[in-house]
Amino acid sequence: MSPTPERPAPLVHLHQLSKAYLTDDMETHALDGLDLEIQSGEFLSITGPSGCGKSTLLSVLGLLDTATQGRHEMSGVEVGSLNARQRAALRNREIGFVFQAFNLVGELSVEDNVALPLLYRSDLSRAERRERVAAALAQVDMAHRARHLPAQLSGGQQQRVAIARALVGQPRLILADEPTGNLDSRNAERVMELLCAAHAAGATLCMVTHDARQAALAARTVHMFDGRIVRDGALPTASAAPTAPAGTALSATRPAAQGVLHA
Ligand SMILES: Nc1ncnc2c1ncn2[C@@H]1O[C@H](COP(=O)(O)OP(=O)(O)OP(=O)(O)O)[C@@H](O)[C@H]1O
Ligand SMILES: [Mg+2]
Known about the structure:
alpha/beta; 7 helices; binds magnesium ion; transport; binds adenosine-5'-triphosphate; MacB-like_ATP-bd; 24% strand; 6-stranded mixed beta sheet
């Protein structure tokens, strides 16, 4: 029998995924039977009202938290079958995070913050790690602040350092949770350019945002409500090029990264 050519496994596959939080007197279903496939190289934005489960979804996608029910595969591997150490290794190697509140370690210098994801990378020599950190800081135009502490930087600068930290390990998946939520419009634009550039260079980008213009930068927008996905497809906005049907491969409609947020 001749082998049938197989479709490559999606980067992420969630099937009937649920996450319940148990507190003293109540159970909250933050994710409620959610299905989602993310192909390698996609850029998708996640929108929805406050409390609908967006950050919970990103925590689960980022292996920071575990689902209470359902299947979660990453590159064809069932995440639930991994032990804590294997999950940490997968997270460390394949996933980069950018948070609204930057989440830099206050006691560490800029360059030490950026080096954090490389700490457990035994495949890289010290010299290679140093080179990677320097390159990542140069990429976000923060090389001149390498020895500073986070508190000595502006918010926009801190977020650029956080992006360098997310990119330094060359992860396949970048998860950004309202990455411009604490920034003015000029810094927000800069951050979006850097994230779009990382996507253009091949990373898969999954971004939670409340900003419709930012959401429209992604050719695929997933809209959540009450722990579920209620809409999944291209946003029919004026700024988007010809809209693609739901689930269409993404690169065709993504506008160029440069200056994308200027009206
Ligand atoms: N650690 C927790 N313990 C208990 N409940 C939680 C916890 N984290 C989140 N929740 C609840 O889960 C639901 C989803 O929260 P989540 O933070 O994912 O929402 P969100 O869509 O990111 O909202 P926002 O837009 O305000 O950031 C909310 O009802 C929230 O109160
Ligand atoms: Mg949130």
